[in-house]
Amino acid sequence: MTLLRLEPRGEASRAMVYATPLLAVALTLASGFLLFWAMGFDPVKALHAFFIAPLLSLRGLGELAVKATPLVLCAIGLAIGFRANVWNIGAEGQLTLGAITGGGLALAFYGEGGWWLLPLMIVAGMAGGALWAAIPAFLRVRFNASEILTSLMLNYVALHLLNYLMHGPYRDPDGFAFPESRLFEADAVLPLLVAGTRVHLGSLFALLAVAAGWFLMARTFIGFQIKVIGLTPTAAGYAGFNQKKIIWLTLLLSGALAGLAGLGEVAGPIGQMNPTISPGYGYTAIIVAFLGRLHPVGILLAGFLMALSFIGGEAAQIALGLPKAITGVFQGMLLFFLLATDVLIRYRVRFGAKGAAGSGVGRAAA
Amino acid sequence: MSSPPHRLELRGITKRFPGCLANDQVDLVLRPGEIHALLGENGAGKSTLVKIIYGVLHADAGQIRWNGHDTHIPDPAGARRLGIGMVFQHFSLFDTLTVAENISLGLDQPGPMDALSARIAEVSERYGLSLDPRRHVHNLSVGERQRVEIVRCLLQDPKLLIMDEPTSVLTPQEATRLFETLRRLAAEGCTILYISHKLEEIRALCDTATVLRGGRVVGSCDPRKETARSLAEMMIGTELSTPERLPQGEAGAAKLQVRHLSTTSDNPFATNLKDVSFEVRAGEILGIAGVAGNGQAELMAALSGEALVPDPASVAIEGRPAGHLGPRERRLLGLAFVPEERLGRGAVPELSLSENALLSGYAREPLVRSGLVHFGRARSYAERIIGAFNVVTHGHRAEARSLSGGNLQKFIIGREILQKPRLLVVGQPTWGVDAGAAAAIHRALIDLARSGAAVLVISQDLDELFVLSDRIAVLFHGHLSESRPTHHTSVEEIGLLMGGLFNHPPDEDEVDRAV
């Protein structure tokens, strides 16, 4: 009847869970090849400029890590919430709040810092993000208000709060009324990890978050409860798992990680407070979380891939004169091919007409 | 083959799913005007076969002849055009619409509503299925809802009517009325294909029975000449061991006491419990009968702790007030609980059996230590359940949804019983479960009671309650009748109670419902 069929596998293929992201990358590269060729570029050169060249220098690799750091930090927290059906869309705002509270400390103790300032800023950044996430958590638990809407709307509130601060209390007194703060002092800046790059301590925190996120989901009873609540809330009710507790926990956790990401930006590559801390890391992290299949290790890889598409897109603009939209095209293709190949996790491709194999009777093993 | 053509003739129907051959060279012949039973355990391939006849599934191989002609049934609409109607076990009705509106949604050409209402009234009267087309479905009893589904089929003037476990939701009296309707239809030449586990009713109703096992036809017979036991043995292919009746031992201390339990709910379609009182003692099995939707779900939730009750003292476990406690705390007091829905409440479909063992096992088994899951112990606990309760599966890694209904139920009941509860509450223990698994489950429940635990069984299956229970009470419109010793009552008496004939002061709520 048909030459190509999809046949249900009966149970999910574990191999395919890992193979389809690679397949998606391969298909994206192949399509990119055709796309560049059709546009009259040398496809090998273009792909090289996009995907390879940024990885050839230490500085390029460093930038990759710098961009991936906030994405991974936010996405780890979001993914844990998503597993429990807690849809925190507010990482952007929580990130901003983390920068405001942590960065605020750096400014408050300007000129009187010490070794203790940085740890304090880190704690304050996480607390700021968590507090911002506590608002949707409270509204959800107390009034059953959708956290999707409340957390999203708080992003704009956070942005306006930042703008207010940058035009008021946080502004550099000697800054000619520019909405920028003083540059943080050495005591308030995250130490660099690799000389010659901008890779800072925040990247180490991101790796720790990956490990801790994996441990939480794979080994702890809390992680098990999160999984059950996300898959089958009625079974969680039957088992006696406290859903409100899990809503609080996942929102506070993702808020704290986003807050840490925000603090890492202002105390890291930026080194001061300004009104554009994040180019939308909190939103892109949602894509990273799903691209990484809500799994910490997957998120780490997806974070690098998204970071590469940002950096490669910029490189391609410069080297080939391609429009800025090329970044979006590649991100879109990647997501498209990933979702398309995901069907292989539960189905296998069969060639040939239905039932033509004939000898299948013997496979009726229970 | 020259006499009047068969209504439906299946030859060599084969249907394969990944990992299982659901139908293997099935032959089936249905004659006009006969009531033909399709018998088989769960997983024997009955549903697959019926879905092929109704066009929901397509056979991989084989022929279908309808009234003597080769035919192909592309989809359910095609089946209806041929004159095949089907009443599913689970109804697909909209609660907020009227009977006529619901029926019109299921017809391919409904026509104007007034004419349709008149036809509904006419058809329902002709077949003794009293039904008011203007009533809203949420006001109807389950038996009445089934009538809506039947009338919907009858309006299309079927030549073959497929009934999938139709009596599982009916009182005995309602079932008797359904049989009269079916006999009348058959007398007019309509063929009825009747799927059921209830062997007594097949003996009472059907002219022919075809028995399926493991996807093959293993025999056909005249059920009126067989005993329920011989039919069951044909179905499972081995000798059946029925559990012995529990000798009436002296009951011990009260393990569960429910006193003046009343519930309120925001859900307008919930049935609130009204002043329900009973107790279950150590060593006994109390059965609660009743047609679905009379408060069973609310009673289960109030007992499990999924719904908290306002007065803590109205539910007491081993004498301790527990109404304010959640499921976890009640488990720690010695309660184990088997919900009615296996997949989606009693088990998480996507998780493995080890993880499902952890789902309720965490409270009373040492599976969690200082916040960390001990996966090795969860696995061996799952393996213990699989071994002790003969769960057919390819191991503790299997996803819960890959198990058949009977095997999953054995797993869930095993998971609860191995926690050595002092009190077990079970909803519909063998609903949709094959005969072999049902016998094993009954055996396990009786053994648990003999070992000194108290067991409460809430079921719609009267045969089951009469096999298991020491005492039976009936739930109707949220009221619970006095319990009666099983050997002092009869199916008829319980059936009348299920229809609401017991003494309680009528209240406003029911008067509202009746309007």
TrEMBL record, chain A:
Annotated transmembrane regions: 15-38, 64-82, 94-110, 116-139, 199-217, 246-264, 276-292, 325-345
Superkingdom: Bacteria
InterPro entries: ABC_transp_permease (IPR001851)
This protein's record includes keyword Transmembrane: yes
Subcellular location, record wording: Cell membrane
Annotated Gene Ontology cellular component terms: plasma membrane
One Pfam assignment: BPD_transp_2
GO molecular function, one term: transmembrane transporter activity
Membrane topology of the entry: Multi-pass membrane protein
Name of this chain's protein: Sugar ABC transporter permease
Taxonomic path: Bacteria, Pseudomonadati, Pseudomonadota, Alphaproteobacteria, Rhodospirillales
